[in-house]
């Protein structure tokens, strides 16, 4: 039987192979990749993600529309107050899949606003700085804004992780995240 850590390691290997394989870009599996860094209360996160843009556009008006993308990610969390003890560390791997809605210009350049709610699998139950998540499965939702110039997308977002209250404790984990993405 595979452990959660093995599942995450194997998923990371497949994900990285898809990103670095030139055929994956040519086939349109990912339209862009991003590197993200985030911080919360006594916790830091780094995330690598691939995005697949949707072709569908809704609410077209005045040169803008609502569209979005699929986001597949792997992340590493480093808590620095494990079990509420400052200086004790907790390391967590996270795999996520999120549909993201984005309001943007028809040219897909300039300012945008976005939001998404996705599914995440954590390698360990989060227990850091008096915040605890009682399950490995979490919902990850975010609201963000950013700017696209050419092939580069720079954004900021607020991200919240929670199991939706289906098991206690569920105090949640929040991150402020900086994202840099490059399309191909």
UniProtKB/TrEMBL annotation:
The keyword Signal applies. GO terms for molecular function: acyloxyacyl hydrolase activity. It is a multi-pass membrane protein. Its EC number is 3.1.1.77. GO terms for cellular component: cell outer membrane. The record marks 163 as: Critical for activity. Keywords: Cell outer membrane, Hydrolase, Membrane, Signal. It comes from the Bacteria. Has lipid A 3-O-deacylase activity. Hydrolyzes the ester bond at the 3 position of lipid A, a bioactive component of lipopolysaccharide (LPS), thereby releasing the primary fatty acyl moiety. Homodimer. Belongs to the PagL family. This is Lipid A deacylase. The lineage of its organism: Bacteria, Pseudomonadati, Pseudomonadota, Betaproteobacteria, Burkholderiales.
